[in-house]
């Protein structure tokens, strides 16, 4: 009987690990001027190809991360980092123009949604274009890379597979959005 319980416990713990499989090595432990993070943040790289690695920042919802939707955010440009939106527009903490410190955003988008900021295409922001040809993009290649990166992100965060997904962006991100949705 004891072995059956122990084996069942191992299976249960393994399943729980699959349900909450966030990449712990990407967990952000702190930011300058922020005494305590008010929600989970992850920052790292997602493979879009063997030589393209898109940088992401994932900020979980302040309300109900397990059930709230996931919003995938693109800045445009093309060539503008999505970290601009994170730190100047709708992230939990912002740096206003002319200021040199991080402060709370009273109305962050992650109030009721999980936000995935993706720096795309490869070579933008902290994203990596490993080969010179990786830095040559068009709307279709960008959307294919973003799709691959999104599918790989779900491998690291499978607990969000059942959440609604919204794809959003500004400026030229308004082109990335429908291409990825398509």
Topology (elements, then pairings):
Blueprint: H1 2-19, E1 41-47, E2 52-59, E3 70-74, H2 83-90, E4 93-94, E5 103-104, E6 114-118, E7 128-129, H3 139-156, E8 165-169, H4 173-181
Parallel strand pairs: 3-6, 3-8
Antiparallel strand pairs: 1-2, 2-6, 2-7, 4-5
Report on this model:
- The chain has 182 residues and is an alpha/beta fold.
- 29% of the residues lie in helices and 20% in strands.
- The chain has four helices and eight strands.
- The chain has helices at residues 2-19, 83-90, 139-156, 173-181; strands at 41-47, 52-59, 70-74, 93-94, 103-104, 114-118, 128-129, 165-169.
- A hairpin with a 4-residue loop joins strand 1 and strand 2.
- The radius of gyration is 18 Å and the shape is globular.
- The termini are far apart.
């Amino acid at each position: 009987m004891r072995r059956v319980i122990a084996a069942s416990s191992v299976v249960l713990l393994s399943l729980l690990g699959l349900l909450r499989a966030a990449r712990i090595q990407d967990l952000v432990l702190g930011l300058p001027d922020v005494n305590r993070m008010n929600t989970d943040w992850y920052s790292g790289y997602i493979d879009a190809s063997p030589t393209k690695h898109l940088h992401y920042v994932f900020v979980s919802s302040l309300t109900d991360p397990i059930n709230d939707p996931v919003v995938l955010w693109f800045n445009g440009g093309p060539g503008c980092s999505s970290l601009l939106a994170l730190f100047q527009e709708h992230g939990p903490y912002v740096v206003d123009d002319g200021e040199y410190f991080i402060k709370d955003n009273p109305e962050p988008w992650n109030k009721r949604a999980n936000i995935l900021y993706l720096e795309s295409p490869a070579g933008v922001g902290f994203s990596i274009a490993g080969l010179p040809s990786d830095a040559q993009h068009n709307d279709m290649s960008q959307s294919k890379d973003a799709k691959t990166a999104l599918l790989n992100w779900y491998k690291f965060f499978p607990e969000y597979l059942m959440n609604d997904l919204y794809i959003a962006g500004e400026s030229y991100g308004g082109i990335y959005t429908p291409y990825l949705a398509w």
